[in-house]
Design brief:
8 strands, 40% helix, alpha+beta
């Protein structure tokens, strides 16, 4: 009788089913090591730590009685639960790997060589380095030039604040006779034109609602002279009426003008521009652009190129002159940047 009683009391320790349970534990652990080896090192360590924590949880729960610690430690999780656990761990490792690869792809997109991106030239193509561009603050409650509540495109910001700044390393060109605040008198602006054209243009400016002219000039190390003017009128209709910036304008020392052939070839492919009603025009950031070049033979040893920008109540002019020929890249760069400031 005593032997039977002892056997019944210790029955849970000698049942055959739990005694064979540890074998699947070793087998499953070896299986999960294989996929995690392909993940990043951080993912492997996190996976193993999670597996150990989850595996030990059911063993602790099984240890109900202090009299059977060996049985509690040996009791494994159900095979079905383990399959779910290791499937989750495999997905965790896969997510870490994909996240790492995705970050590498994003880095590759943001850090390519410039020649690998269509539409961008190399860094040594002659472009100028400008200061960081920023539009001036608007008066309180004033709408944006291209805002839905500003149908005429009126610019409420200070006109001199919309002028393109001079590039780094350039020198001031005093032939642009601007006041300290950047305002240019009408007669000083008209000096850009031939003497025969000035009286007619002056009368046009007086009758066509001119409000203000702002200007800036600079000369770069290669001898290129740049003059930038902004003319603010009472409305956009007066901008269209002014005939001082088109293919028929007569500038000092400039022969006949024609469309800038480089600009014409590039505008549809690189700028996604839309052709408008007047020759050489394009629409860029809400600004109508016409870009012209002086035809050979030049009047003298220099060539001039002119960009005309019409946006709302402002007409912009970018005039570049250089001995030999004007380089297209810095000229187009200046025109586009001035357009962005106006829009």
């Amino acid at each position: 009788m005593s032997e039977q009683t002892t056997t019944a009391a210790t029955g849970p320790e000698t049942e055959p089913a739990p005694a064979t349970a540890p074998e699947p534990t070793a087998t499953v652990t070896e299986t999960t090591d294989t996929p995690t080896e392909t993940a990043a090192t951080a993912a492997t360590e996190a996976t193993e730590a999670t597996a150990e924590a989850v595996t030990e949880a059911p063993a602790t729960t099984e240890a109900v009685s202090e009299e059977a610690p060996a049985t509690a430690e040996a009791a494994p999780a159900a095979p079905k639960d383990r399959r779910k656990l290791f499937a989750a761990l495999r997905w965790t490792a896969a997510v870490v790997v994909f996240a790492t690869v995705g970050a590498g792809v994003a880095y590759g997109i943001t850090r390519p060589e410039r020649t690998d991106i269509p539409g961008l030239a190399t860094e040594d193509d002659g472009r100028w380095t400008f200061p960081t561009l920023s539009q001036p603050a608007l008066p309180a409650g004033a709408p944006l030039p291209q805002g839905p509540d500003n149908k005429d495109g009126t610019h409420y910001a200070p006109l001199t604040g919309l002028l393109l700044p001079a590039p780094v390393g350039s020198k001031v060109d005093d032939t642009v006779k601007a006041d300290k605040d950047g305002t240019v008198p009408v007669d000083a602006f008209l000096e850009e034109y031939t003497p025969e054209e000035r009286p007619k243009l002056k009368q046009s400016l007086e009758w066509d609602g001119l409000r203000q002219i702002a200007g800036r000039g600079w000369t770069t190390a290669d001898g290129t002279r740049t003059h930038v003017y902004l003319l603010r009128f009472h409305s956009s209709g007066f901008v269209d009426a002014f005939k001082g910036c088109d293919s028929n304008m007569r500038l000092n020392g400039v022969s006949a003008l024609d469309l800038d052939d480089v600009w014409s070839k590039a505008k549809n492919t690189q700028m996604n521009s839309t052709t408008l009603d007047f020759p050489g025009a394009a629409n860029f950031d809400g600004t109508e652009l016409s870009v012209y070049q002086e035809l050979k033979p030049f009047l003298g040893e220099e060539q001039s190129k002119i960009g005309c920008l019409r946006t709302g109540d402002v007409l912009g002019m970018v005039i570049q002159t250089r001995k030999g020929e004007v380089a297209p890249v810095p000229f187009h760069q200046s025109v586009i940047l001035q357009s962005q400031l106006l829009s």
